[in-house]
Design goal:
By secondary structure, the chain is mostly helical. Helices cover 71% and strands 0% of the residues. It has five helices and no strands. Helix 2 runs antiparallel to helix 3 and helix 3 packs across helix 5. The chain starts with a helix and ends with a helix.
């Protein structure tokens, strides 16, 4: 890890260590908000009318849906933008294809079509859905 960081600093400067940080931080705030809102909303809908309790399976299902929604709406598009920003070599704006996260998103959509923001959605969907399903089920 030290070799990696020192190589990046030597070749691109210390600021290169923070490429893609803005979309990453932004997506975290939005993702967690959506995740917990979706889970709590579904959990309330999944309450057993007889016992007034939520079973482990229903909690698992609410987590699965919350993970799926965040993967599709938030995680995949933000990861595509973040990865494109990180993959650029150099730090001089005039040499970069993407000038920032918004510029990257617009250029990706313009040049590759809107679906390009969802490249890799299937593995992300599986990962996030199952992760949140087991995560929320283990808390209850």
């Amino acid at each position: 890890m030290i070799h990696c960081a020192s190589t990046i600093i030597k070749e691109e400067g210390w600021r290169a260590l923070y490429k893609g940080l803005t979309p990453f931080c932004t997506h975290l705030v939005i993702k967690y908000s959506l995740r917990f809102f979706t889970h709590s909303t579904l959990l309330n809908a999944f309450v057993d009318p007889k016992t007034k309790k939520v079973t482990a399976l229903r909690n698992f299902s609410a987590g699965l849906c919350a993970g799926a929604l965040e993967a599709i709406c938030i995680v995949t598009p933000f990861e595509v933008v973040k990865t494109r920003l990180q993959a650029q070599h150099g730090m001089k704006l005039k040499d970069l294809k993407y000038k920032g996260p918004i510029d990257a998103a617009f250029k990706i959509v313009k040049n590759e079509g809107p679906t390009a923001l969802w490249k890799g959605v299937t593995p992300t969907l599986v990962r996030n859905s199952l992760n949140q399903a087991f995560n929320f089920m283990s808390y209850e």
